[in-house]
Specification:
CATH architecture: Roll
Number of helices: 4
CATH topology: Nuclear Transport Factor 2, Chain: A
Radius of gyration: 20 Å
Number of strands: 6
Helix content: 25-40%
Strand order of the largest sheet: 2-1-6-5-4-3
């Protein structure tokens, strides 16, 4: 083997070992990369909604997105229906939707992904204190297109009442 071929082969082996070593346990490197992309998309989705309200929220939804409200069972299909459903969530500065993804991944085609996490509705009350009005878990399904990851389904479930 020539020195150049040996160096190329050694480089390929080192890159492969690095990808294997730094991938999360139980996930291949490409799978870990897509997971990181989807988790980053969910965090960017939250940031856009926190900064721009309903318009930020809507900026991440695909045209054919489906939204099922946590306390309802009816599916709201398309951006016009979702905007109408969620307008109240972002109606005033005293109430805000807060969420954080806790897990995510992608389906085999790497074009569709999902995130799950915790969400809550927080209201500012007298004296500036905040009170949690609703908390629960959510799941968001994503589709990757030329513009990046877009929400295609979003829903959640409220925590059971405390006894």
């Amino acid at each position: 083997m020539t020195t150049r071929r040996t160096a190329v082969l050694l480089g390929a082996v080192l890159v492969g070992l690095a990808a294997w070593a730094f991938a999360p346990p139980g996930r291949s490197a490409p799978e870990a990369d897509v997971r990181a992309e989807v988790m980053a998309a969910d965090r960017a989705f939250y940031k856009a909604a926190a900064e721009k309200g309903l318009d930020g929220w809507m900026s991440f939804l695909a045209d054919d997105a489906v939204r099922i409200a946590p306390l309802g069972t009816k599916a709201h299909v398309g951006t016009a229906a979702v905007r109408k459903l969620d307008a109240e969530l972002f109606a005033g500065p005293a109430v805000k939707l807060v969420w954080e993804p806790t897990d995510g991944g992608a389906f085999a085609d790497k074009r569709y992904g999902w995130t799950t996490g915790r969400a809550k509705m927080v209201a500012r009350v007298d004296g500036g204190a905040e009170e949690v009005r609703w908390s629960g878990a959510y799941v968001t399904w994503w589709r990757k297109d030329a513009g990046g990851w877009r929400v295609i389904l979003d829903t959640g479930a409220a925590d059971p009442p405390k006894k």
